[in-house]
Amino acid sequence: MSDWYGEPLDDGFVAHRLTELSDYQMSNGCLAEVQVGDEGELWLLCDAQTRLSERVALADAARRRP
Question: What is the block-wise mean pLDDT of the chain (66 residues), using blocks of 10 residues?
Fold first, then answer.
C-alpha cells in the first residue's frame, strides 16, 4: 500500500491516496479515499484502486495518441 496512507476509524479503517488523481481517473472510477471494516479489506481495496488508476492512466494516454 505504498501509494496510500491508512489509519484506524471508530468502526474500521480509512485510507487516502498519497498521490493526486487526474480528472480523467476520477471520472472513470478511481477513488482518492476508501473506508473499510478491516485491514484485509483495506489492503485489497487499496491494491485494486492502485491497479485501476494505473490502467485508467494508460487508457488516457492511449486516447491522446493520434
Answer: 90 96 97 96 96 97 87
